[in-house]
Amino acid sequence: MLKNIINSIIKIPSTRLFVTAPSSSIVTQSSSLSNALEKYKSPLVTEPREVWLENFDTEETQRLGLMALHPEVFADTPRIDIVQRNVHWQRMYRFVSFAHTKTRAEKRGGGRKPWPQKGLGRARHGSIRSPIFRNGGRCHGPRSPTVHFYMLPFWTRLRGLTSTLSIKLAQDDLHVVNDLEIPTEDSQYIKNLVEKRNWGPSVLIVDDNDIMPQNISIATDSINYVNLMPVYGLNVYSMLKHDTVVFTKAAVERLQEKILFHLNRIDANRLEKKFKLNQ
Description:
6-stranded mixed β-sheet, elongated, single chain, 279 residues, 15% strand
């Protein structure tokens, strides 16, 4: 299979002509290039995904054009196991257990020896608050507060984002709008928009900045099932918690730029080291 691909690449005709122009420009034969790529197209090459760019200033949907999405971000292989690990990690790192039991030193009473050491034929004991006595202290019990924080590997977190974005796009639960400008501050406008566009019972709106337009901030403030989020706070748990995820065009471009940078960064060994908490 690999040998056939290499032979196909070698057979591709040259499509660039180098000319001695003052600016050292390169003339590309577009027709020859397109024909060669169509002829030697490999099934291993993933094509970019496309999504409709919608408006946000009217309740009815108006398609403004098609937007290309990078396949490494929005066409990744869905890994349900990685998504589950991300969800469990997000649930655990903010969970603190306050279950607390008292030891024999913390229980009330039991200061005197219950009976003499010798002479009665009974087992020797020093306190009735020993764990083997009723109403005694608990040995090896839970002690509060107990944190369940741990750090998920960097690549697992990154693949969790790409897998969730790919799943949302494949299920038609990912939409892109040009911006978040709406004509009114009335919350009924957002409710009608979500109902007419069939965006489901809950919507997550993501923008490239944490300062949202005034109208949409006021309109969504009293709606529990519509939430706003900046793109730098995007996470797997929030995307799965909401039925529909709506990105702005600027948010998609910034998200693709950041994820592609991390997928191709050269200092990966440093990120694979075990997380250390400096105190």
